[in-house]
Write a structure and sequence with these properties.
The structure holds two protein chains of two kinds. Chain A is of the alpha/beta class. Chain A has a single domain, classed as Rossmann fold (3-Layer(aba) Sandwich), CATH 3.40.50. Chain A has nine helices and five strands, in the order H-H-E-H-H-E-H-E-H-H-E-H-E-H. In chain A, strand 4, helix 8 and strand 5 form a beta-alpha-beta unit. In chain A, helix 1 runs antiparallel to helix 2, helix 1 runs antiparallel to helix 9 and helix 2 packs across helix 8. Chain A starts with 33 loop residues before the first helix and ends in a 16-residue tail after the last helix. Chain B is of the alpha/beta class. Chain B folds into two domains: 150 residues, Rossmann fold; 139 residues, Rossmann fold. Chain B has twelve helices and 14 strands. Chain B has a seven-stranded mixed sheet with strand order 2-1-3-4-6-5-10, with helices on both faces. In chain B, strands 7-9-8-11-12 form a five-stranded mixed sheet, with helices on both faces. In chain B, helix 8 crosses helix 12 and helix 9 crosses helix 10. The relative contact order of chain B is 0.11. The chains are: A alpha/beta, B alpha/beta. Chains A and B meet through helix 4 and helix 5 of A and helix 3 and helix 5 of B.
Chain lengths: 313, 383
């Protein structure tokens, strides 16, 4: 994209605050533009993993998915945040909100400078989504809620004859919550085919691999059994995401059925030194480690992490 | 949750223009209170009930009231978790605006929040126990944090669950709901008051919990329903007793008042139909002019009217002897309502008897206490 965002800064020389190119309107993003955009979102995530920290592992797994949705799928822009005809995205897993903050900042929904106020009392950039951040449709943090909230929104859209669609991102660990399956039953009963659930399948609950604690597989068969139509995709491959999600922009997989997508992802994707590690769900790194991780994000060698892993929750 | 049946006994037992600045700091980007597509309230009150009177004459049933309100307010939707006894006639009237999610209270509340985000004003009708407890965290988190205009109507609360047993006995619903910031708690004395309250509740645009009650009028209501205002059913006299109650027990407490007056005890009676916001003026006045306050409620002692009165008196520094007639720390014996009232001592005469006993006890205490200069009291026998 010739007039696109500035080339990301390289390696550990990345500036403390990212450059501020003008946000691109949706629809101007080609698939080839997405990797550099996702890289900048990941930089934001890494920068939030210090001075208190953040849920870095769960955010990095979800970054490509969010970047793809906000650039290629959602009929939504900073100008249409209050438009009843917009598409709705609900972040139900909640702790991946740094990926959303980063995406919203890169796309001009919020000022990048706000990310520097992470965990500051003079702003509302904290560990879970909240509506003081433009672009966040509803607060979350308590798992198993927003599929139900999405049902209400999808139902009203249908009542009003709207063509807009509702997207809900679920964590795989979140599927432990009974309320998710209650909502799956109800969405199917109400034949809400304007509703799509995407599971960020990074294979970890908070501190344990899902299959070692409460096995979830086969997830697609579960959704199918609940009356949904479900596809599986690679949550880090934009071509695969395009194949799985682009059709849902205007129609369900199967008329009359809600749609589900299992996006296979890697916790901590982009940072080999923390990828798929149980103790790197939430991390609070030193400033030096952050510089090292930013370099690693840009393909540099791992400089090692000395901070102890955290078991939170 | 398995069988809820029989959910509502055949004996007749039986949703704010704008949420204030959303407490979660909603940025006004389509969140609470921005009412996308909503058309706002259609006016207040039923004709002839003291409101603006744009709602036509008051219907005679709760169900008819919801039907009439839904015709006036296109944003109104009625939801249930398959608890249709009191609203069984609404599906053909409301069409797609009647949403029955099956026995899924959590999803029902989440969906109600989603509908409210789109400008709807959901009236959620479900059994009180499962509504406020199974779905408590959804109410607190989705409706409460976002301060959404969702009206929660808890069916068969308190004694009205008759023979269902403790699983169905909502005896902590008032305590739970009033603990949620911004949540109003309204407990009508009868169906007439329930119907009168509905337009005011919907117009308030506040999240509201309502104890459903479709029993015949307990007393002749003189004052129009108003959120935050108690109804003074009988004025009593200075130095007398004030009885305070809410819900269908007003009928029994009114009967108790007559018994007490026959015994020469002047009794004021307050219908505390709005428990949150509560009528602090009425409570402080009662505490100032009475020698005994008695709260009567089909609720555990903790967190209900007894707690509310105690909190208000302490806050205002006005203290009066306060006795609680409640379920204390126990569930009640399941049976049909009249038998429950008799067994648990909540008939008019039984309530009067307890008040007389309380007064006797106080008279006894008065006899054994003497005033010590300086205002301290000491039992007479220990001088």
């Amino acid at each position: 994209m010739s007039s696109g965002p500035a080339t990301p800064a390289q390696g550990a020389e990345a500036p403390a605050a990212p450059a501020s190119p003008r946000p691109e309107p949706r629809g101007r993003w080609g698939l080839e533009d997405l990797p550099p955009l996702a890289l900048r979102v990941r930089e934001h995530i890494v920068r939030m993993a210090t001075a208190g920290g953040c849920f870095i592992g769960a955010s990095l797994s979800c970054a490509d998915l969010l970047v793809y949705l906000y650039t290629r799928v959602l009929r939504l822009s900073p100008e249409t945040l209050a438009d009843p005809g917009r598409d709705y995205l609900f972040l139900s897993k909640g702790h991946d909100v740094p990926a959303l903050y980063g995406t919203l900042a890169e796309l001009g929904f919020i000022e990048r400078e706000r990310l520097g106020r992470h965990l500051q009392t003079d702003d509302s950039i904290y560990w879970h989504p909240n509506r003081a951040v433009p672009g966040v449709e509803f607060h979350s943090g308590s798992l198993g809620h927003l599929l139900s909230v999405g049902i209400g929104v999808a139902l009203d859209i249908r009542l009003r004859g709207g063509a807009n669609r509702v997207w809900v991102i679920l964590g795989d660990g979140e599927l432990d919550e009974g309320s998710v399956w209650e909502a799956c039953l109800v969405a199917s009963a109400l034949r809400l085919d304007n509703l799509t659930a995407i599971v960020d399948r990074n294979e970890f609950q908070a501190n344990v691999r899902t299959e070692e604690l409460v096995p979830l597989e086969p997830i697609p068969a579960k959704f199918e059994a609940f009356g949904w139509s479900c596809h599986t995709t690679d949550g880090h491959d934009f071509g695969e995401l395009e194949a799985a999600l682009a059709p849902l922009r205007t129609a369900p997989y199967v008329p009359g059925r809600p749609s589900a997508v299992v996006a296979r992802t890697v916790r901590g994707k982009g940072l080999p030194s923390i990828e798929a590690k149980a103790d790197r769900w939430f991390a609070n790194f030193t400033a030096e480690e952050i510089e090292g991780l930013l370099a690693e994000l840009h393909g540099g060698p791992s400089r090692g992490i000395t901070s102890e892993g955290l078991v939170v929750r | 949750m398995t069988a809820h049946a029989p959910q509502e006994a055949p004996a007749g037992h039986e949703a704010r223009g704008r949420a204030a600045a959303a407490p979660d700091g909603g940025a006004g980007t389509g969140g609470a209170g921005t009412s996308e597509g909503g058309t706002g309230g259609a006016g207040t009150g039923w004709a002839g009930t003291g409101g603006a009177g744009t709602g036509g004459p008051a219907p005679r049933t709760y169900e008819a009231a919801l039907a009439a309100l839904s015709a006036l307010r296109p944003e109104l939707v009625v939801m249930t978790a398959e608890n249709r006894a009191a609203i069984r006639g609404l599906p053909p009237v409301l069409g797609a605006r009647f949403v029955d999610v099956g026995i899924c209270e959590q999803t029902m509340i989440g969906a109600a929040a989603g509908l409210a985000l789109r400008g709807r004003t959901p009236v959620v009708h479900a059994l009180a126990t499962f509504l406020v407890m199974r779905a408590f965290e959804f109410i607190r988190t989705d409706v409460g944090i976002a301060n959404l205009p969702v009206t929660l109507v808890g069916a068969v609360p308190g004694f009205l669950s008759d023979g269902n047993g403790p699983t169905h006995q909502a005896l902590e619903d008032v305590a739970l709901m009033r603990g949620i910031p911004h949540m109003q708690v309204i407990c009508p004395a009868d169906e007439e008051e329930l119907i009168a309250a509905l337009p005011a509740i919907l117009d308030s645009r506040a999240p509201t919990y309502v104890r459903h009650n479709a029993l015949p009028a307990a007393v002749a209501h003189a004052a129009p329903f108003e959120i935050g205002r108690a109804e003074l059913v009988a004025p009593g006299a200075e130095g007398g007793v004030t009885l305070l109650t809410y819900g269908f027990l007003l009928r029994e407490v009114a009967a108790a008042r007559l018994v007490l007056e026959e015994h020469g005890v002047p009794v004021a009676l307050l219908n505390m139909r709005s428990l949150k916001p509560v009528d602090e003026v009425a409570l402080v006045s009662a505490a100032r002019r009475s020698r005994l306050l008695v709260t009567v409620e089909d609720h555990f002692q903790t967190g209900g009217l007894y707690s509310i009165v105690a909190e208000v008196m302490v806050r205002h520094g006005v203290l009066c002897r306060l006795r609680s007639l409640s379920l204390g720390e126990r569930w009640f014996k399941p049976a049909l309502l009249p038998a429950v009232l008799a067994h648990e001592g909540f008939t008019g005469p039984a309530i009067a008897g307890k008040v007389l006993a309380e007064l006797g006890e106080q008279a006894l205490l008065d006899k054994t206490l003497v005033d010590i200069p300086g205002g301290r009291h000491r039992p007479a026998g220990r001088r």
